[in-house]
Amino acid sequence: MTIIPAFLSLLSLFGPVVSHEHYGTTLLPRSDDTTPGASFSYVGMTGPLNWYSLDRQANALCATGRNQSPTNLASDTNLSSSCSIVLDIPNAPEGALLENLGVAVDVFTNGTLTQRNVTSELVQFHFHTPSEHSVNGMHYPMEVHFVFQASDASVSVVGFFIDFGELDTLLEPIVAGLPDIPSHGNTTTTGPLDFSSILDHFCSNSIYQYSGSLTTPPCSEGVSWIISSEPIRIDVPSYDAFRQLLGFNARYIQNAIGEINLLENIARQLQGSD
Amino acid sequence: MTIIPAFLSLLSLFGPVVSHEHYGTTLLPRSDDTTPGASFSYVGMTGPLNWYSLDRQANALCATGRNQSPTNLASDTNLSSSCSIVLDIPNAPEGALLENLGVAVDVFTNGTLTQRNVTSELVQFHFHTPSEHSVNGMHYPMEVHFVFQASDASVSVVGFFIDFGELDTLLEPIVAGLPDIPSHGNTTTTGPLDFSSILDHFCSNSIYQYSGSLTTPPCSEGVSWIISSEPIRIDVPSYDAFRQLLGFNARYIQNAIGEINLLENIARQLQGSD
Asked: What EC number(s) is this enzyme filed under (chains A, B) (predicted)?
């Protein structure tokens, strides 16, 4: 896992990193294990409707940000060519670290994303069931997010929807590793990872692009989203393996970019009625 | 469709009914087409986080009710036998009315639910993608709700999760009718409906029971929920047909029964930070 030092150094821009789980999906790590709100979930008082309260200062944008993700994508707008973006993720013949973070399953390997002459490093990729983004109001069974960070700390996420069909080559060794990580904190090493098919898929399909946020606390904005318009594929048994392990781990669809945060809105509405 | 007069008379307890869509999933009809908030959706300013604002008086419980549905069900609690509940839905050899209500697909046929010597009449049944309820944090691809109303207007809903597998006998003619109702307001008549397998399924599996609410505006409480612990089955192509037609139409998981409404909570939290 020679890539770990590389991304640790990137992430150390934000403070000391004490374990994988502090940057698994939140990306921007919390400084230590005792930070209030370091743990979140997808339901109830620790779920997306209350992430703000878990740490009012750090997570303020979760309830007040107006450029929040995920969003509903419209199939007839925002589509652009993927040609100007270079996604380079070397195959990992030795496999990669696979970790159960409780709120997600993350894979740690190296790679780069280059757009407009800026190169970002792959931090990890992880999975959501169901998809976080929707297209014309329709969700997919899953979504995978490749999280990249540039040297100025700016974040880009390349997302692929995952729909039913023949199991994608890349996903196969990851699915095979899931039984080894039944609990939060478990890690294993996957079989060899072959990124050629997903990179081909990215190149040969148009993309949605917008500026949004992390979909987990602290919901930081300025995240460059790049989402392939066509899903990759998973078979039902493999989907079941992810679903049983992850449960539901998708933030609800946010208001349209630029519009009032839905939580700030309901707070105003309820205040108005007092 | 001889059952329509029967349930119209039930529903007329709540005011004049002008078209199916006023009671499709909301059950409790609005009085006329011009009522503010008569239309809702599952995203953005007309979505679940803002149903309250669509009609502050009628929909108050959507943001303040503390017995709201759907909830997360825990597999090790609340399970009880289905033996004391008699679900009787006669086969419909002539088929049944199938309607695209925009926010759901409803089937209108007759039937009864009897528990504790109270008999309720089936109003309709309808479908959600993905499931509204979750079990231990896991959602199913779909959920079907059979909505019953007693003469005192109290509402009971019998729900079945729908997971992947061989297409259920009951679902087959409904799926076959979906291409005939591509748009909101479209209706068709299904092929013959056979309820025997789903009734057997209900009888032979334990159930979750709790008192919750309608999962659509006006989010009325006091709804008796009865949910089969074991899913019925759908194949992937049929799921796709529902998903393409319905899009995402599941309300988010509410706070635990008796706990503060998540929307009232965030409003208080944001007020507290002013």
From this structure: 4.2.1.1
Mutate to test the interface with B, among A41, A42, A46, A49 (most CBs of B within 10 A): A49
The DSSP output letter for A138 is: B
Residue A140 CB coordination number (10 Å): 22
Residues comprising chain B, all counted: 274
**What are A223-274's pLDDT values in tens digits?**
999 999 999 999 999 999 999 999 999 999 999 999 999 999 999 999 875 4
Q: What is the DSSP letter of A43?
A: S
Closest CA of chain B from A238, distance in Å: 12
- Binned at pLDDT 50, 70 and 90, residue A42 comes out as very high
- Neighbouring C-beta atoms of residue B9, cutoff 10 Å: 11
B274 in helix, strand or coil? Answer: coil
DSSP 8-state secondary structure symbol assigned to residue A176: H
Q: Tell me the two tokens of residue A29.
A: 């790590």
Instruction: Report the amino acid identity of residue A12.
Output: S
Task: Report yes or no: B255 at the A interface, CB cutoff 8 Å.
Answer: yes
Q: Measured between alpha carbons, how far is B104 from B87 in angstroms, rounded to an integer?
A: 23
Give dist(CA A239, CA A80) in Å, integer: 29
Q: Is B54 exposed, middle or buried (0-12, 13-18, 19+ CB in 10 A)?
A: buried
Tell me what ipTM this predicted complex has: 0.84
Give me the torsion for CA of A258, A264, A265, A270, rounded to 10°.
Answer: -170
Kindly report the number of other CB atoms within 10 A of residue A194's CB atom: 16
CB-nearest partner of B267 from A236, A252, A267: A267
How many domains, in total, are found in chain A? 1
Whether A181 and chain B come into contact, CB under 8 Å, resolves to no
Contact between B138 and A247 using a beta-carbon 8 Å cutoff: yes
Tens-place pLDDT, residues B98-152: 999 999 999 999 999 999 999 999 999 999 999 999 999 999 999 999 999 999 9
**B49 reaches A (C-beta below 8 A):** yes
Within 10 angstroms of residue B176's Cβ, the number of other Cβ atoms is 15
* Placement of tokens 């329509």 in the chain: B4
Residue B189 has pLDDT above 50, yes or no: yes
**pLDDT mean across residues, chain B:** 87
* Burial class of residue B39 (count of CB atoms within 10 Å of its CB; 0-12, 13-18, 19+): middle
Residue A66's nearest CA partner among A208, A209, A211 is A211
**A174 Cα to chain B: minimum distance (Å):** 20
Chain A residues with CB inside 8 Å of B45's CB?
255, 259, 262, 265
- Is residue A78 pLDDT above 80, yes or no? no
Print the domain residue range for B151.
Answer: 3-272
User: Residue B176 is part of a domain; what is its CATH number?
Assistant: 3.10.200.10
Nearest CA in chain A to B53: A269
Give the minimum alpha-carbon distance from B139 to chain A in angstroms, rounded to a whole number. 6
- Tell if the CB–CB gap between A134 and B248 is shorter than 8 Å: yes
* Cβ-based neighbours of A4, under 8 Å, separated by 6 or more: A97, A108
The residue type found at A98 is: L
Q: CB of B269 within 8 Å of any CB in chain A?
A: yes
